[in-house]
Design goal:
mainly alpha; elongated; 66% helix; 116 residues; single chain; 3 helices
Length: 116
């Protein structure tokens, strides 16, 4: 069996300073930076999610105080009741507008009098 030995004629090149960065596997720094940015992004996202959850809970509590009987309702029923309440308020606004325009037109016509 023949063994091959390295001879002194074989040149080994030492990495030059400009090649020292390239001696590392390609993309090593990028992956490290990417992992760090992913970790900080996940920390930021979890903080944002916590803030969002707190904001949603505050808004639900506000709805419960605004909507009549809302404190006794669950979230789904609260949303349905809120929608109904908004529609009822819109109807009241329309009724007030109609009455206001009617009364304004009556004031212009002094001939029409109420109650006698």
């Amino acid at each position: 069996m023949e063994k091959t030995l390295a001879t002194s004629n074989t040149k080994r090149s030492s990495p030059s300073p400009s090649n020292a960065v390239n001696a590392r596997p390609a993309g090593f720094k990028r992956r490290t930076r990417q992992r760090l940015s992913d970790e900080t992004a996940s920390v930021r996202e979890s903080c944002v999610e916590d803030d969002d959850e707190e904001g949603v809970e505050e808004k639900i509590e506000a709805l419960q105080t605004i909507v009549p009987g809302g404190a006794a309702l669950g979230v789904d029923a609260l949303f349905e009741e809120t929608a109904s309440y908004i529609l009822a308020l819109q109807c009241q606004i329309n009724a007030i507008k109609v009455l206001t325009s009617f009364l304004e037109s009556c004031e212009k016509d002094d001939d029409m009098k109420f109650g006698g």
